[in-house]
Amino acid sequence: MHTDELSWFVVLAETEHVTDAATELGISQPTLSRALARIEEQVGVPLFDRVNRRLRLNGYGEILLEHARRSIAEMRSATERIAALRDPDSGTVRLAFLHSQASWFVPDLLRRFRAEAPRVQFGLVQGAAHEIVERLAGGQADLAITSPRPEGYRWRGLYIERLCLAVPRGHRLASRNRVKLADAGNEPFVALAPGFGLRQLTDELCAEADIDPDVVFEAMEIPTMEGLVAAGFGVAVVPVPRPERAEPGAVYLPLSQASAKRQLGLAWSADRSLPPAAERFADFVIRTTHDVD
């Protein structure tokens, strides 16, 4: 199966639309349709269900999509490793990281690493914890800075963030030095959407405190949560902010639960070798941060 055609199949599987996929790929629709027919002939089954002139990836197609992504990632990795052997100071690191690490931790790492290896390039993507794990699994990312620790991956703890309860200024709890999460059990909550690592930790803390909070809004980023707390929409479990990044309209109360923390770490596949540039960056991250495993 030709590598180009595998790449075409991935785009088609992601768009489920021949016209859109052909446009994105810069090829004609008949060319793409013929390529799909050849792939389906080789695997011996249809990969899409045809519904009202639309394509819907079926179970066979999902299996091929998983392996196609891995194959493409492996070929890209091989090409990058060969290039790195020819020129050890070059290469590309594909790094996925949490939204919350985009404002200071990741930029600081990149700044310090680029001073040491200025010719190494980066392919950066930020997302939720489940999206990051999917990218690692599919070979679309070499390394990930994420939380909580994903199962089945190599891991290096980098640092621990304490979690706190953010409440609006003037809130009935705002004057406390410390708070139990159970004390906010009847409050409306602002949280991240399901699939985010912090939402998973928040749900676990609430279960531990034996409360079932009313989540009135699900955000995509922590600053949005803090802004809505300041606007009086509810309370939220968030990492203790750096002083210069705290929301002025919110009060951050330490939580009394010992488990109110999250560990950020570096994760990578246990089954694939890292490309040289990614291995160099991983070594740099491990060497310049504290081990908190």
Automatic annotation (TrEMBL):
GO terms for molecular function: DNA binding; DNA-binding transcription factor activity. Pfam families: HTH_1 (PF00126), LysR_substrate (PF03466). One of its GO terms (cellular component) is protein-DNA complex. The keyword NAD does not apply. InterPro entries: LysR_HTH_N, LysR_subst-bd, WH-like_DNA-bd_sf, WH_DNA-bd_sf. CDD domains: PBP2_GltC_like. Keywords: Activator, DNA-binding, Transcription, Transcription regulation. Residues 1-58 form the HTH lysR-type domain. Belongs to the LysR transcriptional regulatory family. Required for the induction the katG gene for catalase. Involved in the response to hydrogen peroxide. This is Probable hydrogen peroxide-inducible genes activator. It comes from Mycolicibacterium wolinskyi.
